[in-house]
TrEMBL record:
Coiled coil: none
Top-level taxon of the source organism: Bacteria
SUPFAM superfamilies per UniProt: NTF2-like (SSF54427)
Gene3D superfamilies for the chain: 3.10.450.50
Record GO biological process: polyketide metabolic process
Source organism of this protein record: Caulobacter radicis
InterPro entries for this protein: Cyclase_SnoaL-like (IPR009959), NTF2-like_dom_sf (IPR032710)
A Pfam family per the record: SnoaL
Protein name: Ester cyclase
């Protein structure tokens, strides 16, 4: 199976977002990659479903976890829609996260998201993240019992 040119280009945009914006804090690239009318269909609690909300979330994550980065396990595309399964990693040495003061602890959590790419920019997002696991790893929740 070969991907269409449209799908290949869409995957490249999403990968740049994951690796360079989220993983390196390249905020100038964020400005290039996110459409002005970007819509997040699944914003985090307290966030907004727009471009400003996405940027705030990314900056919050990098602020709390300065070494924040992802391992992309797989990506698939159907035309302009890219779905990605990845594991985020970081060390909680920056600011607070979800009300938890910096702990110095390493975290890892899985996400699945879908992003629509139009005219080379991210225009829509849907996603789920295992933030319960983050709170558990930071010691904010009890560890599961057997």
């Amino acid at each position: 199976m070969t991907l269409s040119t449209e799908s290949q280009a869409a995957i490249a945009v999403v990968r740049r977002n994951t690796e360079q914006v989220q993983g390196q804090g390249d905020w100038a690239l964020f400005e290039d990659l996110f459409a002005q009318d970007f819509l997040d269909h699944t914003p985090q609690p307290g966030g907004t479903p727009d471009r400003a909300g996405a940027l705030k979330l990314y900056k919050t994550l990098r602020g709390a976890f300065p070494d924040f980065h992802a391992d992309i396990h797989w990506q698939v595309a159907d035309g302009d829609l890219v779905t990605t399964y990845k594991t985020y990693h970081g060390t909680h040495t920056g600011g607070p996260f979800l009300g938890v003061a910096p702990t110095g602890k390493a975290i890892a959590f899985e996400t699945v998201d879908a992003m629509r790419i139009k005219n080379g920019q991210i225009s829509e997002h849907w996603g789920v993240a295992n933030l319960y696991k983050v709170l558990e790893q930071l010691g904010a929740l009890p560890a599961p019992t057997a």
